[in-house]
Design brief:
By secondary structure, the protein is mainly alpha-helical. It has seven helices and three strands. It is about 55% helix and about 10% strand. About 15% of the residues are buried.
């Protein structure tokens, strides 16, 4: 059965989240702040068999950067980008502090960032 054409409409203007939505099967990503013409353009592009995103990528090639992360690392990176603290992430995911720190170290190594702020800014 073919996948339906999915257009994600999100409040987040985050290239990371837009890329993840597309990797997970969405055909388009627009922000809720988009004007009606942009939403119509996205629908038209998807209906014609294309893709559409209103979020511009930053200078780094985030597609390559975040595909190297595991599912759990992607999940943790997304939670960090939502400004959750380590304690909140630990409680939400049922991890130990050491396990979370190991995941964060792996995320930093794979993305080339050196701090939580840099990860947040991706």
């Amino acid at each position: 059965m073919p996948m339906p054409n999915v257009l994600v409409c999100s409040m987040y203007e985050d290239p990371f989240l837009a890329r993840r939505a597309m990797e997970l099967g969405a055909r388009g990503y627009v922000t809720k702040s988009a004007v009606a013409d942009e939403i119509t353009a996205a629908i038209d592009a998807i209906a014609a068999g294309g893709t559409y995103t209103s979020v511009k990528s930053k200078t780094r090639d985030q597609g390559k950067m975040f595909t190297a992360l595991t599912r759990r690392e992607n999940e943790i990176a997304a939670l960090v980008k939502q400004s959750l603290t380590n304690r909140q992430i630990i409680e939400m995911l049922g991890l130990s502090n050491r396990t979370l720190e190991n995941h964060l170290k792996n995320i930093y190594d794979k993305t080339g960032v050196t701090s939580r702020k840099e990860l947040f800014d991706l």
